[in-house]
Amino acid sequence: ELTAYTNQSSSQSPPLKNQFISTQTVFDPLRRLPIIHNVNVTKILLVTYFRGGSTFLGDLLQQNWNSFYHFEPLHYMTVGIRIENERTEEAFRLIKHLFKCDFINVPNYIKWVSIDVHQHLFEFNKFLQNTCYFRPASCFDSLFIEQVCLRSPIQIMKVARLSMRHIEKLAVNDLNLKVVYLVRDPRGIYSSRKLMDCQI
Fold first, then answer.
1. Considering the domain boundaries, does residue 21 fall inside one?
2. Per the domain annotation, does 3 fall within a domain?
3. In what residue span(s) does the Sulfotransferase domain sit (predicted)?
4. What residues have CB less than 8 Å from 42, skipping those under 6 apart?
């Protein structure tokens, strides 16, 4: 059993059961990190196009050591095309769950990102990777991920599968959301996509 800590006011909160963390382990990366109330969390939504230079910008934004980086979570819903029509509501629900650190209620997303070929999406999250470094399996445990996320004062999410007209609706419904819209010279985007010559 593992000890991760739930929120609330006391610094000695009761431990969360977690199959990946042993109570015999002296090193507990979450022990000294306080939980940040969601209203005090800075939420940044990085909106871009495929091959728009956003990976570099995302890395810059997460230079704060305990920033939590949601890298392309909508990759779970589609590959290579934008999300439109009735699926936008599903995308909004996923985004809202993640910005609330609610990984428990997105089991299909966690299951999908745990597949070997998709695990690289979590590797962009340096805070999570550093925290679960000694217990790699916990990187994909929803309880552990949630506890790490709850201790981050800054959350960054990169999306390239929603248009700005959809993002506007999402931003209006969440006054705490800061939107960064990254635009790149279309010639550079075209050249980069052609060079990659693969599905995105």
1. no
2. no
3. 42-193
4. 153, 154, 155, 176, 178
